[in-house]
Write a structure and sequence with these properties.
D-Maltodextrin-Binding Protein, domain 2; 2 domains; 22% strand
């Protein structure tokens, strides 16, 4: 039995992993998956890979590409979500900001440095023709921390996946003033390189199991109801999210990787281009 420690955010994107666990699909193939939710997001998961606290992570593409470039001893072994992540741009409901034209102090609440909420602020700044030097940050760790920072005016803006924050918008705690999609496939599967080298067979089997699940995920009976109940989302929001979301069963091509790298460089998320083989496992 090969033990694999996997980390991911507590969000609807990762339901296929939990269905595999609940159906004992990994265990039946001699793989013991130890799953840990990480609400702090990609920045924390990158840290866990670095410190050998996790073997595999389902992370935001921009975050793991940047962190590998900075020395994370991991590689992307596959795309996970093919489609963009639709980031909501949020403010507190108790302030006067109604559109992005009302924004003065460009202080973002972020889960941590290097997180998606941090790096996507540069993408949003580029869209609005703001200077990177205009941005400042308040580290809040989680969504709850962001709500506190916005309502107490420690920060003005918070970017997070729009369906996960929809209940906070519906109840009037936050306003969503804008949206900002990632210009690349949003989630990737990354693995510590040493673990991959020692366990290639088990990793290949793990990917085949999760890929079979994601390939058929939308056709599962009552999947919309399951997502709605587990993640406390409205049925109409789940239906819209499923229409916008496609899972992947392959890795990045060299051309696709080159385009993402150029975009990341333009948005100032990274400061140099990396070679394909430095980031991606060429399978």
């Amino acid at each position: 039995m090969t033990k694999i420690r996997i980390v991911g955010v507590p969000e609807h994107f990762n339901l296929p992993w939990h269905l595999c666990l609940e159906q004992n699909l990994f265990a039946q193939n001699h793989i013991e998956v130890i799953w840990q939710y990480v609400p702090e997001g990609t920045g924390k998961m990158c840290q866990m890979l670095r410190q050998n606290e996790a073997d595999l992570a389902i992370v935001l593409t921009e975050g793991i590409m940047k962190d590998i470039q900075l020395g994370n001893p991991s590689k992307i072994i596959q795309k996970y979500i093919e489609t963009p992540l639709i980031w909501g741009v949020h403010t507190a409901a108790n302030n006067q900001i109604k559109t992005n034209k009302d924004i003065k102090d460009k202080r973002f609440a972020i889960s941590r440095m290097g997180s998606g909420s941090h790096l996507m602020s540069f993408v949003y700044a580029d869209h609005n023709k703001w200077l990177k030097s205009d941005l400042s940050f308040e580290i809040v760790n989680t969504i709850d921390g962001a709500v506190d920072a916005l309502t107490t005016q420690k920060a003005q803006l918070f970017m997070w996946e729009k369906f996960m924050t929809k209940p906070l918008v519906d109840t009037g705690i936050l306003n969503r003033i804008d949206e900002c999609p990632t210009p690349w496939p949003c989630f990737s599967i990354a693995m510590h390189s040493e673990f991959l080298l020692k366990n290639e067979g088990a990793v290949s089997k793990l990917l085949s199991i999760i890929n079979e699940m994601t390939l058929n995920f939308k056709q599962l009976e009552n999947v919309e109801k399951s997502i709605s109940n587990r993640y406390r989302l409205k049925q109409k929001d789940v239906d819209l999210w499923l229409k916008q979301t496609e899972w992947s069963q392959i890795n990045f091509s060299k051309d696709e990787f080159a385009k993402i790298q150029k975009d990341l460089l333009r948005f100032q998320v990274i400061d140099r281009l990396s070679a394909y083989e430095d980031i991606i496992v060429n399978s």
